[in-house]
């Protein structure tokens, strides 16, 4: 007999807290292994959280609409109907609903606690790595790693929730330093299939729906909080801004020819950027304490404004390798699912270079803020008719747009950024047809 704690899962590497969108199950309902229990809003999307255990939802600690930190208990799951009342009593004796509940056990019984989304077992005592029966409590990944490194888990002090042993503890005991942050065991959120509808123009971002009431303070959404944290983190990075005017007559002509096939201007720009990045891998790289990190692929993220005032950057993965028609279909699907908060973490967190296009709003020029973990971001202004000098010494009118690139100046210098923009302009001005090949 046992009672399990349902923890707030870490649905992305940047997530620090989650908001309960809705409980799929009600107290007293039977829960099957692999069945969705709750819908959680992470910093970027709404995710269905499935149970790794069979039992009964005994008590909800965090109600719909409320938030909890990653690793905090949000509900109790009883293995049998007889234990439901015991779980309720434990919850009432634990204090507030938002506290990280430590379930007390009856004499002669052991109550293991486990996270629904991570399927890792936590200690009942709240400190240390062993429960009352003396059994070492560790995550499955930690146990597997301990076996590979031949490390004895006994005596290791766990640094995970409730003192459980995690992979980093095993690596530390083996004298190996982890190079990646710990992540929760992936969950499989249920995402409704989306049938993208063809649109010729790039999908403009909607006007953010902000509840502005005089005399009131409107709390930030989970997504807005995530954006705020990222922007503050960017302040510590020294950046350089480089601008360039690009003539778009040839690109505009190409767009008119192929837009009826579902191609968007956003996809054309992303493809042009990706192809140019092939020649400038440093612009696609990012800084780390160990040195310059060159990603294995070119993943172009494009900023999209959300209905609730937040910002998300869906990622066109391997954008340099996809044909323009596949890229456009992928982009339309990404935007639809982003607005519905149905993107998977890898669809918004794997960008290696970002494009922010405010030209669709008529903005002439702007500087974009560098996203954490990336080396560059390109700000795209509106394409407008400009009077320019021609090669024969005359004046003419051409469509031009101004782009401004923001780069991490620790690894990318002005000459690097200028060379990239020159090649991007050359591609768009003289050979945009190559984007369809």
UniProtKB/TrEMBL annotation:
GO terms for cellular component: pyruvate dehydrogenase complex. Gene3D superfamilies: 2.40.50.100, Chloramphenicol acetyltransferase-like domain, E3-binding domain. Its cofactor is (R)-lipoate. Keywords: Acyltransferase, Coiled coil, Lipoyl, Pyruvate, Transferase. GO terms for molecular function: dihydrolipoyllysine-residue acetyltransferase activity. Residues 122-135 have a biased composition (Low complexity). The keyword Coiled coil applies. Signal peptide: none annotated. GO terms for biological process: pyruvate decarboxylation to acetyl-CoA. Residues 70-97 form a coiled coil. PROSITE patterns: BIOTINYL_LIPOYL, LIPOYL, PSBD. InterPro entries: 2-oxoA_DH_lipoyl-BS (IPR003016), 2-oxoacid_DH_actylTfrase (IPR001078), Biotin_lipoyl (IPR000089), CAT-like_dom_sf (IPR023213), E2/Pdx1 (IPR045257), E3-bd_dom_sf (IPR036625), PSBD (IPR004167), Single_hybrid_motif (IPR011053). Its EC number is 2.3.1.-. Residues 122-141 are annotated as: Disordered. Residues 137-174 form the Peripheral subunit-binding (PSBD) domain. Residues 3-78 form the Lipoyl-binding domain. The keyword Acyltransferase applies. Belongs to the 2-oxoacid dehydrogenase family. This is Dihydrolipoamide acetyltransferase component of pyruvate dehydrogenase complex.
């Amino acid at each position: 007999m046992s009672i399990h704690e349902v923890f707030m899962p870490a649905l992305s590497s940047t997530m620090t807290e989650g908001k309960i969108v809705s409980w799929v199950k009600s107290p007293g309902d039977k829960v099957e292994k692999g069945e969705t229990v709750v819908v959680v809003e992470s910093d970027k999307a709404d995710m269905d959280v499935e149970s790794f255990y069979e039992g009964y939802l005994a008590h909800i600690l965090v109600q719909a609409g409320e938030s909890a930190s990653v690793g905090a208990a949000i509900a109790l799951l009883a293995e049998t109907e007889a234990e439901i009342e015991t779980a309720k009593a434990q919850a009432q004796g634990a204090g507030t609903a938002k506290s990280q509940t430590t379930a007390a056990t009856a004499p002669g019984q052991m109550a293991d606690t486990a996270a629904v989304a991570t399927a890792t077992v936590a200690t009942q005592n709240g400190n240390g790595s062993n429960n009352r029966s003396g059994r070492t409590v560790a995550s499955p990944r930690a146990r597997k790693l301990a076996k590979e490194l031949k490390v004895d888990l006994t005596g290791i002090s766990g640094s995970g929730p409730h003192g459980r042993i995690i992979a980093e503890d095993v690596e530390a005991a083996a004298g190996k330093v982890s190079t990646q942050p710990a992540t929760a065991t992936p969950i499989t959120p249920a995402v409704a299939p989306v049938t993208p509808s063809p649109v010729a123009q790039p999908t403009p971002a909607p006007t953010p729906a902000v509840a502005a009431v005089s005399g009131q303070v409107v709390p930030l959404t989970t997504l807005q909080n995530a954006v705020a944290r990222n922007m503050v983190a960017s302040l510590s990075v020294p950046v350089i801004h480089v601008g360039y005017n690009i003539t778009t007559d040839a690109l505009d002509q190409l767009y008119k020819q192929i837009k009826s096939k579902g191609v968007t201007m956003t996809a054309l720009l992303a493809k042009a950027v990706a192809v140019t990045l092939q020649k400038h891998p440093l612009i696609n790289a990012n800084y780390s304490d160990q040195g310059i990190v060159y990603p294995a692929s070119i993943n172009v993220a494009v900023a999209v404004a959300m209905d609730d005032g937040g910002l998300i950057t869906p990622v066109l993965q391997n954008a340099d390798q996809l044909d323009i028609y596949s890229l456009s279909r992928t982009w339309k699907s990404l935007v639809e699912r982003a607005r519905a908060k149905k993107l998977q973490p890898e669809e918004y967190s794997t960008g290696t270079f970002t494009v922010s296009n405010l030209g669709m709003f008529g903005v002439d020029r702007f500087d974009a803020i560098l996203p954490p973990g990336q080396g560059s971001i390109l700000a795209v202004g509106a394409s407008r008719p400009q009077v320019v000098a021609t090669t024969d010494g005359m004046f003419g009118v051409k469509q031009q747009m101004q782009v401004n690139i923001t780069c991490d100046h620790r690894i990318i210098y002005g000459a690097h950024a200028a060379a990239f923009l020159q090649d991007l302009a050359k591609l768009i001005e003289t050979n945009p047809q190559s984007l369809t090949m």
